[in-house]
Amino acid sequence: MFLLPIETLYERLPVFALVLFRVSGLAVFGPLFGLSTVPAAIKAMFMFVVALALWPMAPDIMFRPDSFPDLAIAVLSEIAIGASMGLILFFVITGIKIGAELISQQMGLSMSQMMDPISGENSTLLQQFYNLLLTLFYVLIGGHLVLLKTLAETFKTMPLGTPFSTEPILVTLTHVLTVAFQAGIRLAGPALVSVFLATMSLGFISRTMPQLNILAAGFPMRIILTLFIMITSLSAAFYIFDEYIIYALNEIGGLFL
């Protein structure tokens, strides 16, 4: 078994520290391990194991800081690289959750919220349902593996300790946030249109039949109609998941590779 000399290992420790900072930024803000319900010990173990695996792939530090401000800038740069990779996917997931919230409001279920075991926040049943589907789909298509592969490639394209410009990252995050809202609207579109047409139909019926209680008849009808539209458009929802997850991974690759 090949063992590194103590001197070489000691010289490579700053490299491992910067790799750990870059991995930690991704683990804190990215999907799966960035969830608030994941124990801190599990997150720390994940960061350490991934950093240990990527450590041999990382080249030596091109820029060695000579002062504490330079060291702080290098550390913040590494954290920002990993955090921006995680935030791109986080924005897409947030857009999907906004679409689920719009559907819940149209169904009248937005008032009945409960604790989401994934995000650790109060959310509706539909938000939890779509969040579970999106997380499962993300794992099934190997999105987490692509993300880790991209993270490993960044050590070649963006050497450790080298300061970089945050302007392209901010521009990309702003664009991804806009696209994420579009994903939410596309997800909720069929339900929004169907409920709007059903509400208009009930309005016309109420004009011809004033004795009909629209509130009593409309509430269960909207729930049944929205559930039917959700079931029939579930394949379209998976298509939206696939399109925007791949879009987010491509944006990450285009930004750092």
Series of secondary-structure elements, N-terminal to C-terminal? HHHEEHHHHH
Poorly predicted runs are none
Continuous helix count: 8
Report the biggest beta sheet as strand number plus sense, adding barrel if it closes.
Answer: 2 strands, antiparallel
Strand order of the largest sheet: 1-2
Judging from the principal axes of the Cα atoms, what is the shape?
elongated
Query: What's the average pLDDT?
Result: 79
Give the total of beta strands: 2
Rg estimate, integer Å: 24 Å
Q: What percent of the residues sit in helical stretches (DSSP H or I)? A: over 70%
Structural class: mainly alpha
**Percentage of β-strand residues:** under 5%
Instruction: Report the span from N to C terminus.
Output: 33 Å
Secondary structure layout plus pairing:
Layout (H helix, E strand, L loop, with lengths): L5 H24 L10 H15 L13 H40 L6 E2 L6 E2 L1 H16 L2 H15 L9 H42 L5 H19 L1 H23 L1
Antiparallel strand pairs: 1-2
Concise synopsis of the structure shown:
The chain is an all-alpha fold. It is 75% helix and 2% strand.
Describe the structure.
The chain is an all-alpha fold and 257 residues long. It is built from 8 helices and 2 strands; from the N terminus they run αααββααααα. A two-stranded antiparallel sheet has the order 1-2. A hairpin with a 6-residue loop joins strand 1 and strand 2. Helix 3 packs across helix 4. The relative contact order is 0.14.
